[in-house]
Amino acid sequence: MKKKLPLLLRILVAIILIQTLRFKFTAHPDSVYIFTKVGLEPYGRIGTGITELIAGILLLIPKTAWVGAMLTLGIIGGAIMMHITKLGLEVNNDGGVLFITAVVTFLLSAVILWTKRKEVKFF
């Protein structure tokens, strides 16, 4: 169980990151609305999508999972700040689901990074 839980967390965060890509890359109206509201449409939407794809892949590779977790913390930390400062906790009457998902993803990424802390390399 000790080895399965970290793997499960990495897969879960990767799924969360990767499943949102269809909204960003297809210019879904909700995604366009969000990035327009924060002043980053279209380059921020596409750039964030590419970065989330990279983070999701890195999370699935055991040796780079810590890099994926750190990247995810940065991406999702930015998303949380945008919710708090510009978007609000509820976007387009979603009941706060997008914000809650961001917070959960951030916390899970922090747990992943903590479990991989001995592998973290600084140059």
TrEMBL record:
Query: Topologically, how does it sit relative to the membrane?
Result: Multi-pass membrane protein
Q: Report the main location listed first in the record.
A: membrane
Taken from the UniProt entry, a GO cellular component term is: membrane
This protein's UniProt keywords: Membrane, Transmembrane, Transmembrane helix
Q: Which Pfam families match?
A: DoxX (PF07681)
Top-rank taxon, per record = Bacteria
Protein name in the entry: DoxX family protein
Give the source species. Answer: Aquimarina algiphila
